[in-house]
Each structure stands twice: as structure tokens, then as C-alpha cells.
Amino acid sequence: MHGNEVLGRELLLQLSEFLCEEYRRGNERITRLIHDTRIHIMPSMNPDGYEVAAKQGPDSNGYLTGRNNANGVDLNRNFPDLNTLMYYSREISGPNHHIPLPDNWKSQVEPETLAVIQWISSYNFVLSANLHGGAVVANYPYDKSQDQRFRSHRRTVNTPTPDDKLFQKLAKTYSYAHGWMHRGWNCGDYFADGITNGASWYSLSKGMQDFNYLYTNCFEITLELSCNKFPPEEDLERQWMANREALVAFIEEVHQGIKGLVSDENNNGIAGAVISVQGISHDITSGDMGDYFRLLLPGTYTVTASAEGYHPQTVTTTVGPAAPSLVHFQLKQEVVRKPPERKASGTRVNNKALQKKVVPRATRRGTQR
């Protein structure tokens, strides 16, 4: 996202090569991961910013040189601000997921941001991470504090999502599989277990991480991967070895929770069905074919599937620590019955009397619509 924070770009290129090579070698773990998972990799969201930073190189690169795109815009402050809408909606018991975008949102975002929003809207993504540099920590939502007084770098405003425990687990999966992130002390700063709630670190508005959670079914975290935003070439192998297992382990985390199909009585998939988990005030929706996937920690849950025009269905299911539980829903269509027609009373209308009560339009004066 930030053109001068280049390690993530190099790691994702190396990850792509690693997955292909290990698949060809018959690595059972990687083969299973590729067969069971749709993996999308975007090495760079800000190629223009990268070119600016790369021209200066790692030795003379300024701390902010190349951070923004060609229009001078920070792309991680450029997504529609759904947090403010969510905080207001929460007060009036409004929707907690797939919050509608403002009418004029396309005119307020950069081309890169628009392309990414269209991309993440085209697939029913479940889990993602965006990669940064300048610190070493796994950051999870919310990034934006509800209290706008706290905008400086102060660790005082923890702002958890309804899925806070799950997000902490996702962040710890990366930090403890990383070479040293989990130790906490990095870059002159300390984060317990190598993780932090975003707003607890500092409040950030219009970021990609919160946008994903509030607009799509995708659970995203932010990975800060190096103290040096533009590390020298000789440091890349060491960084790759520190992140390789963490990257693979994080991708594997997509296979936890519940998954299945929402269909009607004729086994036709129902798109846009809402999957609600009792006790967690954040819903997800089914995809175009009625398929859904809801990340959950191990435990027993009461889950409801609902869709307009259908009777909701509720089940209780147990999620284990290994593979996702398969939970299908088959919804019965609501039958709308017309009320019985009233019989004519037989009372005759006195047309002359009725005419006296009706004022001809031409005689009305002084009225406006």
C-alpha cells in the first residue's frame, strides 16, 4: 500500500515462487493448501510510489519518500469511512455488516483504491492481510477509535470488533510463526505477543483493514514486517526465512469455523443470505451460489441463516480446532396468502349527496402542491 515499504512486495513475490516450487516437488502441506484454498496475491497496490522510492534506493531513502501514490495520496487513508457510519448505526441498532457505501464514494477515492474495492467485491474473500513496514507487529481491527479525541500515538483506546478474540488469534498465529515478532521488543517499541489492536496503537481513519471487515465478509489484519522500510538486498533472505512459515500458517487459518450452502427447497443456492452467530454482533453473507464461510474459534455456536422471502433456520453446531464444520441450511419459502375479499354490502351510494362533498378542482383557490 505504501510504495516505500518494500519488504512486503518482495516477500509476496517470493511466496508465489515458493508455493509453485513446493507444489511441483510434491510437498504434502503446500499441495493440500493449494488444492483446498483459493489464494490471491497482490504484491503491490502502489507501484508508482515504489518507483519513486526505488530511484533513491535503500541508502538515501527518506522516511516518507514514495509512501503516497502519484497523486500524493496515502492509499491507507483513502477508503470510504465506514467506521463512522458503523458507530452511528450501532447506536440505533442498524446493520453491523456490509454497510452501504456513500453515494459519491467513487469520486472520493484514488484509482488504486477503486480497483481494489472492485476486486474485493468480486470474490467472496474470507481472510486477508495487508503488508507494511516501519515496525514489527501484527495489527488487528478496529484501526479507528470511536472517540475522535484520540488521534495521536497513544495506547489508551482499545477498540475491539465483535470478533476480537478471533482477530487476536489470527494475529498471534503470524507473530508466533515469525522469527522474532512474538518477542515484543522490536524497533525500540514493545507489543505484548507481537500483536496490537490498531486503535490501541493509534487511531487511523479510512484504512483498508477496517473497510474489509465492515463492507465484505473478509477478516483482514495489518502486518508490519520490518523496522527498515526499505531494507538492503542482502537482508532479504534473512527476512524471507523469518516470514516464510508465518505467511503459510496465516493462509492456513482460513480453514477454521463453519462453512456450507444456503439453499431453497429445490436445492437452488440463495445468494446474500445472512449468517448470524448468537453472541457475536457481526454477520456475514452467502455468495452468489449460496456458499458461505464464517471464521470462528473452537466452541459451540447457535447459528441462524435468513433471507428475504424465506423462513429463517437455526442450528447448533460445534467447531473443532482442526477443520471447519460443515453446516448446510435449507430455507423454506414464505407463503403469502391474500386476505379474503369482502362481499359488496348492497348499500347504494347517493350520487347527489356525494357530489355535494366533492369540490371541483377549478374552484379551489390559493392552494399549492
UniProtKB/TrEMBL annotation:
Q: Name the Gene3D superfamilies for this protein.
A: Carboxypeptidase-like, regulatory domain, Zn peptidases
- GO MF annotations in UniProt: metallocarboxypeptidase activity; zinc ion binding
Q: Supply one GO CC term from the record.
A: extracellular space
Q: Where is this region: Disordered?
A: 339-369
Give residue spans, biased composition: Basic residues.
354-369
The record's annotation in SUPFAM superfamilies points to: Carboxypeptidase regulatory domain-like, Zn-dependent exopeptidases
Q: Where is the Peptidase M14 domain?
A: 1-254
Look up the coiled coil feature and give its residue ranges.
none
Q: Name one GO biological process term.
A: peptide metabolic process
User: Which EC number(s) are documented for this chain?
Assistant: 3.4.17.3
User: What is said about its interaction partners and assembly?
Assistant: Tetramer of two catalytic chains and two glycosylated inactive chains.
Q: What does this protein do?
A: Protects the body from potent vasoactive and inflammatory peptides containing C-terminal Arg or Lys (such as kinins or anaphylatoxins) which are released into the circulation.
- Name-wise, this protein is Carboxypeptidase N catalytic chain
What is the protein's species of origin? Pipra filicauda (Wire-tailed manakin)
